[in-house]
Amino acid sequence: MAGERQSQGPGKPADVRNRLRRQVEEERVAAAGMERLLGVEGGDALYQAVARLKTEHDAFRRQVTEGVTPTALEAVVLYLDEAGIRHVSPRGRQTARAAWDADLDPHEVIVDAVAELGLTPFMVHSTSWRVVDRQILLTFLVAVEPPTDVPDDCEVELVTRAELARGRATGPPPVVHLPQIVEHGLRHLAWLLREDEAIHEALADWGRALRGYDPEPFRAFGREPGA
């Protein structure tokens, strides 16, 4: 996807793991020091943010220690209103992302990440994956209840149609943009609306909005340039 940071050379695996271990340990110590500095109750927003970072660092540390390349998760968060389907995202970012804790089901991680934005998810489904910075990035479309007020740290835009990213018969598209990922995801939901009873029930009010989308199953977008 345009704007993604390009990965650097991998180097020797042992050197990479040692460098990552040092980095994670430094971040863990810094997070612990911030917790002591704050000394506030768990309801404080800043304290919650630090605790969330610490959880992500601990999960990442376990993966690094085991020599596993982390898998990342992202949520494309959508809701339906009178104007159509809207995409809500953290301000300055296209999607909500989270590290996958191998002790949890990825759906649970995504639900928690979206709930932390102050939104209420009622449908979560994985729709595509791609490689970004030598990570597998698994994309989930998440339908949420229309918010009474959009959280201050989020921004909203109306979803518009896009051409799908097309690759070769044996390879991914050279470039994939978020609107194309959303387009495919909504086509996938249109397919599930017809084929999956649980999704049909959850998205009963979305039938008209999805009517124009050609049903399509899961897609692997593959590697992004330099990933």
> In terms of per-residue confidence, which ranges show pLDDT below 50 for 5 or more consecutive residues?
1-11
CATH class of the largest domain: Alpha Beta
- CATH domain topology of the largest domain: Nucleoside Triphosphate Pyrophosphohydrolase
> From the helix content, strand content and strand pairing, which structural class follows?
alpha/beta
Count of helix runs: 6
How many discrete domains?
2
Measured between the Cα atoms of the first and last residue, the distance is 10 Å
Integer-rounded radius of gyration: 19 Å
State the share of residues found in helices, binned by percent.
Answer: 25-40%
Shape: globular
- Which band does the percent of strand residues land in? 15-25%
CATH structural architecture of the largest domain = Alpha-Beta Complex
Average of the residue pLDDT scores: 80
How many E strands? 7
| Main pleated-sheet profile | 7 strands, mixed
Reading the helices and strands in chain order gives HHEEEHEEEHHHE
Outline of the structure:
With 227 residues, this protein is an alpha/beta fold. It has helices spanning 13-38, 45-65, 106-115, 178-195, 197-202, 207-210, and strands at residues 71-81, 84-90, 96-99, 121-132, 135-144, 154-158, 219-223.
Features:
single chain; 227 residues; alpha/beta; Nucleoside Triphosphate Pyrophosphohydrolase; 2 domains; 7-stranded mixed beta sheet; globular; disordered N terminus
